[in-house]
Design brief:
Layout: E1 3-7, E2 18-26, E3 29-32, H1 37-42, H2 47-53, E4 63-67, E5 76-84, H3 94-107, E6 113-117, H4 124-137, E7 161-165, H5 172-196, H6 204-218, E8 221-225, H7 227-233, H8 236-242, E9 250-256, E10 264-275, H9 295-309, E11 315-325, E12 337-339, E13 345-347, H10 355-367, E14 373-378, H11 382-388, E15 393-397, H12 400-413, E16 417-419, E17 437-438, H13 446-455, E18 463-468, E19 474-475, E20 486-487, H14 492-504
Parallel strand pairs: 1-7, 2-5, 2-6, 6-7, 10-11, 10-14, 13-17, 14-18, 15-16
Antiparallel strand pairs: 2-3, 4-5, 8-9, 9-11, 12-13, 15-18, 19-20
Helix pairs in contact: 3-4, 4-5, 5-9, 6-9, 8-10, 9-14, 10-13, 12-14
The protein binds ligand BES, manganese (II) ion and zinc ion.
Length: about 500
């Protein structure tokens, strides 16, 4: 993992492989951002002119590398675009800083140490943003590549050390901001690793073993229900989905408790370690991306560990509903009826609508403990991707205020999301002639239909929200800002902030 330090050294004197400065888009060309005064001075005050000559504009994500002039210890100056310069009396947004820091880190893959001299006009909040962006941008999935040293193969090692200049190591708030950023970024990066891990190496049992190990390390109680325990408990949804696979399903419960907790938050994650569609097999195409179908469980796992590492004063229970959706002679068929953990029966019309089946059991089980709120996270529907695109997750809920809060929290941490409705009239499309409900309804509004299905398995009177992250969970195009190609770690930062807000009591 990338190391993080707060440094009091001056930009000119610090030993590093590169010095990162910010450049914004001004009305008359690029403007050097605050924090880079010493660097600009070494360029005789002409850094903006030099950058403009090189074609830089300060646009978001733009990266320009320059040889450092004499007077600067680092051999390279990297100017990263922050986007439009803020209006008078305004500062750069946290997300602009996060993205710029991330783009710089990515451009410095293969380097040992980079010093970041980006603007920190808002104090601790900006320390947090730059640290988070730099650490999230310094991610690479190299576990399956022969060479990890950046000299051969196609994987460069991530930037090894990030030094933040202008942050104060002895300032309590700055230190806390950096520590939080490190914990959150490490857990997001851990989730990205899980998502990127090939499905032959990450089956439900392997995921459960990793969770068990992490639980020991961070003081989280972990209980794993294996296929025998699931059968004994009557978890027909999870078992039905896992029935076709040689790798049996698991339900993992992660309990983080604080002696000072006043509230209890339950998080439920869809953990399909591979979604082939089952008997309703997906057509051939880019199905390798369906290893990402456990991104919800990875997000829940990461959020619980982050809550423990941060010592939040709230109880957080994570539920990972793990199964592999495969076709075989033992697989669930379209037409089969499953008896769910809640006792309800579900007619399976399409075995590719498997996420809602595993989540339903986990939601019912999570409800038994009467938490103050439940949030489930799932790569649930292609319909949500059609509706919101690849970077925005949908939020559905049985409580309008809670849905709004989640949307605001996501915005605050730099995750794109949008509130979606649960129109009651879509329920009748799931009426079944043989069972209580079918696992599929109308095609139109498919993401909302899935949400309505889940709602039926949430305990009476419990506040619940559903995040459909099918779009943003896995980035199939190029990297941008602090978002890599592949697994992104979507929704984790939202869940962690939700846990913090729940702990501090400024939420319901
Ligand atoms: N895992 C998929 C949804 C998905 C799509 C995730 C694209 C990530 C990217 C889910 O299990 C699925 O197959 N859903 C079906 C439901 C349908 C059969 C009702 C879908 O969206 O097509
Ligand atoms: Mn599916
Ligand atoms: Zn799926």
């Amino acid at each position: 993992m990338t190391a993080l330090t707060l440094s009091t050294a001056g930009a000119a004197t610090l030993r590093a492989d590169a010095l990162v400065v910010g450049v914004a888009k001004g009305a008359k060309g690029p403007v050097v951002a605050p924090g880079a005064e010493a660097v600009d001075k070494a360029f005789d005050g002409k850094l903006a002119t030099v950058l403009e000559t090189l074609g830089a504009s300060g646009a978001e994500g733009e990266v320009t590398k320059l040889p450092a002039p004499s007077g600067i210890k680092a051999p390279v100056v990297l100017a990263v675009g922050l986007g439009s310069a803020p209006e008078k009396d305004e500062t750069f947004s946290a997300e602009a800083l996060r993205r710029a820091a991330g783009a710089a880190s990515r451009a410095l893959a293969g380097s040992k140490k980079a010093a970041f001299a980006l603007p920190l006009l808002d104090g601790a909040a900006d320390v947090a943003a730059v640290a988070e962006g730099a650490l999230l941008g310094a991610y690479a999935f190299t576990a399956y590549q022969e060479s990890k040293n950046g000299k051969e193969g196609n994987g460069k090692a991530p930037l090894a050390e990030v030094a933040l200049l202008g942050a104060k190591p002895r300032d309590k708030e700055h230190k806390a901001a950096a520590e939080r950023a490190l914990a959150v970024a490490e857990e997001v990066n851990r989730a990205r690793d899980l998502i990127n891990t090939p499905p032959n190496d990450l089956d439900p049992a392997a995921f459960a073993a990793i969770a068990t190990e992490a639980g020991k390390q961070h003081g989280i109680k972990v209980q794993v229900l294996d296929e025998k325990a699931l059968a004994k408990g009557g978890y027909g949804g999870i078992l039905g989905v896992g029935a076709g696979s040689a790798a049996p399903p698991r339900l993992v419960k992660l309990s983080y408790t604080s002696s000072r907790a006043k509230k209890h938050l339950a998080l439920v994650g869809k953990g399909i370690t591979y979604d082939s569609g089952g008997i309703s097999l997906k057509p051939a195409g880019h199905n390798e991306t369906m290893k990402c179908d456990m991104s919800g469980a990875a997000a829940v796992f990461a959020a619980v560990v982050a809550a423990a590492r941060l010592g939040l004063e709230v109880n957080v229970t994570g539920w990972l509903a793990l199964a592999e959706n495969m076709p075989s002679g033992s697989a669930t068929r379209p037409g089969d009826v499953l008896r769910m953990y809640s006792g309800k029966t579900v007619e399976v019309l399409n075995t590719d609508a498997e996420g809602r089946l595993v989540l339903a059991d986990a939601l019912t089980r999570a409800s038994e403990e009467k938490p103050d709120a439940i949030v489930d996270v799932a790569t649930l529907t292609g319909a949500m991707v059609l509706a919101l695109g690849n970077r925005t997750f949908g939020i559905m809920a049985n409580d309008d205020a809670f849905r709004t809060s989640l949307h605001e929290i996501a915005e605050e941490v730099g995750e794109q999301s949008w509130p979606m409705p649960l129109p009651a009239e879509l329920r009748k499309g799931m009426d079944s002639s043989t069972a209580d409900i079918a696992n599929m309804g109308e095609r139109m509004g498919g993401g909302l239909v899935a949400g309505l299905f889940l709602k039926e398995f949430v305990g009476e009177g419990i506040t619940w929200a559903h995040l459909d992250i099918a779009g943003p969970a896995f980035n199939e195009s190029g990297p941008y800002g602090y978002t890599p190609k592949g697994g992104t770690g979507s929704a984790i930062r939202t869940l962690v902030r939700l846990a913090e807000r729940t702990a501090s009591g400024d939420l319901g």
